[in-house]
Amino acid sequence: MDVLRTPDARFEGLDGYPFAPRYVEVRAADGTSLRMHYLDEGPRDAPVILCVHGQPAWSYLYRKMIPLLTAAGFRVVAPDLIGFGRSDKPVRREDYTYAAHVEWLAQWLELVDLREATFVGQDWGGLIGLRVVAQAPDRFARIVVANTGLPDSKMVPEPVSQMLGQMYPAMPVPYAADVRQAFQNGGPGAFLYWVKYAAECPEFSVGEVFGLLAGIEDPAVLAGYTAPFPDDRYIAGARQFPSLVPLLPHHAPDRAANDAAWAVLETWKKPLLTAFTDDDPVTRGGEVVFQTRVPGAKGRTHPTIKGGGHFLQEMQPAAFSDAIIQFIRETA
């Protein structure tokens, strides 16, 4: 496996990101050693909040929330998934699979040895992290899911997967504006435009993604989000992630793995909170499945974060942090 490592100079002086880097080594299936970066802020003996990002973000996404959470007395740990942030980046898109990401995060969790943690996952942080929680439920005291999902065979039954599989090849390769329009219009094919844009558009841009899904225009902030990717050799993971969402027929093994994770979550009696936004074009309404299928979510008041877009950590960090803090204190 060929691997790139973003030069440290790319991370110097980033806006609002003064945190010390920490690293562990995880192993790929072929034996390649991969350096995985994470932040670990706040008192070491404080209750732990594990914050996992999605695509194409990295721990920079949590920079506004970390001071709020640590000031409230918590320890915040935020890894960079392989292919993102300061973590190593395999060069080939084929090196990134859903199962590989789960395995890498699971190895990291064992090495860092978190216990009684509150899991917080958004976007792919949920798709990957909830699988890890299901594999190691004794390490977690509660779950917070925000603008994410865990597609399984109930949500994507085989006939729907076959339909999407027939739609995808016939779609033209879209540009960012086409993806924005598809999300605004809705419909079953909207997410496929996002998949095809990331996989095939010659002008795919990490910066464009944050403009598309969050309306971010501040050059200093965009510089933070694009810092891990000096050029297109580094973006294989960012391009591949949408193609791994288990929607199409060849994703059947991943849907089966998610079925197994749901079997654990459907018996999860520890607390679970949903904190979705009211205006996310990608996951709007996705909180309902967690509220209805997870025992630990029932009978609870679940906040709706207003005006958070897809990246609520960026757009509504205080509201999201307050929801997490209140949830932990109420269920401690």
What is the number of helical segments per DSSP (H or I, 4+ residues)? 13
CA-based shape: globular
Number of strands: 11
Supply the number of structural domains: 2
What kind of sheet is the major sheet? 7 strands, mixed
Mean pLDDT: 95
**In CATH, what is the homologous superfamily of the largest domain?**
Alpha/Beta hydrolase fold, catalytic domain
CATH fold assignment of the largest domain: Rossmann fold
Residue stretches low in confidence (pLDDT < 50, at least 5 long) are: none
Spatial strand order of the main sheet: 2-3-5-4-7-8-9
CATH architecture of the largest domain: 3-Layer(aba) Sandwich
Question: Could you tell me the strand content as a percent range?
Answer: 5-15%
Query: Rg from C-alpha positions?
Result: 18 Å
Helical content band: 40-55%
Q: Tell me the span between the first and last alpha carbons.
A: 44 Å
- Going by helix content, strand content and strand pairing, the class is alpha/beta
The first-level CATH class of the largest domain is given as: Alpha Beta
Order of helices and strands: EEEEHEEHEHEHHHHHHHEEHEHH
Please give a handful of descriptors for the protein shown.
332 residues, alpha/beta, Rossmann fold, 2 domains, seven-stranded mixed sheet, two-stranded antiparallel sheet, 13 helices, 11 strands, 15% strand
Write the layout of secondary structure elements.
Blueprint: E1 3-4, E2 22-27, E3 33-41, E4 48-52, H1 65-71, E5 75-79, E6 89-90, H2 98-112, E7 117-122, H3 124-135, E8 140-146, H4 158-170, H5 176-185, H6 190-200, H7 206-214, H8 219-226, H9 236-244, H10 252-265, E9 272-274, E10 276-277, H11 287-293, E11 304-305, H12 312-315, H13 317-331
Parallel strand pairs: 4-5, 4-7, 7-8, 8-9, 10-11
Antiparallel strand pairs: 1-6, 2-3, 3-5
Helix pairs in contact: 2-3, 3-10, 5-6, 5-7, 6-9
